[in-house]
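Case study.
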Amino acid sequence: MIDLEVLRGSYTKSPSKIVMLVADGLGGVPHPDTRKTELEMAHLPNLDALAWESACGLTIPILPGITPGSGPGHLALFGYDPLKYFIGRGVLEALGIGLELRRGEIAVRGNFCTVDGKGLVTNRRAGRIPTEQSAPLCRRLDSIQIPGVGLSVHPVKDHRFVLVLRGEGLDDRVNETDPQQTGVPPFEVSPQAAEAGKTADALNRFVEKAREALQDEERDNMVLLRGISLLPHLPSMGEVYKLTPAAIAAYPMYRGLAQVMGMRVVPTGSTFKDEVETLRESFDEHDFFFVHYKPTDATGEDGDFSAKVKALEEFDSLIPEVRELKPDVLMVAGDHATPSLLARHSWHPVPFLLHSRWTLGEGIEGFSERSCAGGSLGTFPAMQIMLLALSHADKLAKFGP
Amino acid sequence: MIDLEVLRGSYTKSPSKIVMLVADGLGGVPHPDTRKTELEMAHLPNLDALAWESACGLTIPILPGITPGSGPGHLALFGYDPLKYFIGRGVLEALGIGLELRRGEIAVRGNFCTVDGKGLVTNRRAGRIPTEQSAPLCRRLDSIQIPGVGLSVHPVKDHRFVLVLRGEGLDDRVNETDPQQTGVPPFEVSPQAAEAGKTADALNRFVEKAREALQDEERDNMVLLRGISLLPHLPSMGEVYKLTPAAIAAYPMYRGLAQVMGMRVVPTGSTFKDEVETLRESFDEHDFFFVHYKPTDATGEDGDFSAKVKALEEFDSLIPEVRELKPDVLMVAGDHATPSLLARHSWHPVPFLLHSRWTLGEGIEGFSERSCAGGSLGTFPAMQIMLLALSHADKLAKFGP
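After joint prediction, the assembly is written out as follows.
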């Protein structure tokens, strides 16, 4: 995080308010028929007007050419160096289903698989059984007990589940059990560091008891464990920046990520309208708001260009309600691009705008990948967004005499 | 400083000449009435014509969102990493009144204050007494003697003075004495590192003798010491870049900063016209010239938009005289923005132009924040300006085979 020793004394408390709207997967690439991106095809009168008055640029989530997952993408937005702070796959999966993890707890991405009579894996995903079938099996696993370690098992979707371990001295420096091929047995868990012996032992016991519990099943008769990870300890955003940050997010994973960074999660509904309403209701209580908008990413991942255009237009339609609150700094950012043409996250620079009374208003014609490239902020690391936001909000003092 | 090991052998001597005009506090933000910045309101025929033929861009003094003081702002312009090299507040104050410091000397920002009969601070600034009253008190302090350490005291303005310590083994890792509140005694100076014991001891003795020397005063009966700092040892700009750099600056602080970086200070008068005349007279003797123009910052800090416009026009009017000298590289840069609307330094990117026979001339319409955003140099760290200047002047060889 932008927690440079030299800046320690520079973050200052002030009554001003900052709103960061994060449209997940915001950027795109041009459709081959029109040579226009989703942002360029969408009718975005409110974002366009806002961009005109704002400081604009393109953000690089991690490094040019690096496609971020949701974890690193969001860490960067709040000033955490995504190459330094890591949120493991198991933890992210747990946050994604709304589990509340505590420091020192280990989360694991598990899935059911099929083994033959000799214990060799014949199907790594047990034929992707539906959740209705896997949920009762999860309840069976959830009742497993291991001395000295608490555990719980939570269904995710289809053949996937989350295993959480609780106890003293857990350590995630252990290998996964998925052999990544069939015809071989699952790996044993081995410690990769001296301190990880207890965790490896607990996971091996869990696997053994899971095998027993599932032995009568035809297909789902074994488990594979991946993404074994500790909830990381991140510096608290509020403490470092002297903010009382709040997160408003309809999707559980983003609430979880925000909590790991030390934000207070404000309960909200399932739509962006709900989120904006929650922003309005809680506006007096906080000085920093992260508002997460998921549909731009979801439609992009679906590869549905016109659905992403519509998702952008829905996002745009509520910008006036946000502006009515008159935040001192209003930003529109993305954690990464999710071009519909790729149907997945990408490495492209992401459009960004920041509006405050101190912005130049460089007259950017429309909020898009192309126009933001001409903005005064240039193409810059997402990790530096918070420094800009804090300065524009008069919360970051001069550096050096 | 851009003193990368890999570039060591690449800086080469050549007869070409580089002129860097630094308009202090160059950038601004738009006036709410006109939505135009100071640069956009000013009539700048010469800068506009120069920008048309130049490579243009915006420079980031330190990091996006970081507002630099004058020290870090200038260090960056000459390629010194402002997060690595630090010029302390005491040193800057000493340079600001024209003191010549040597390596190993300590400079302290002092001020008179009022303490009551129990030694508790009742007024941290002794009611901001005028310089006429504080100067005789400074002479009294100047006569204080401490065994093993030389010292001198110099009036600054109002209640402020500079204390300089000279001697072997001085170290600035000590705390300040200003308690930042009234009703408590000043802090003792304590060493924050084992090597700083001698300095702490000398400063405590100075404070004790100052208290005795001032005991009959009603208001100015004590001193507070802040910004205790050693003159840092910076690599010499001339040695690293193989230049014979000269500084032409009407204001003492910028002469002092230039000296710390290893430039020769050429005596000059008090106006920009004097500075340009000095440039002309000394043009044969050096291959690099830093010419500092203060009024753009001073008017910005005063919050006087139209005065800053006039200061820019005055700066513009002498551009033809500089161009007549036909420097191989001519740059116009700023150490930071000082928007009149903020009336202080800011974090905004700063307009920059570089003109040489090798510049594209991207046809920038006018020299301003908005137009420079579209230049070929993009928005880039000020610390990289020197690399551009040296290459355009044929003083930086190819990197790698």
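Observations recorded in class. Residues 197-213 of chain B form the longest helix (17 residues). Chain B is about 30% helix and 20% strand. We will return to this complex in the next lecture.
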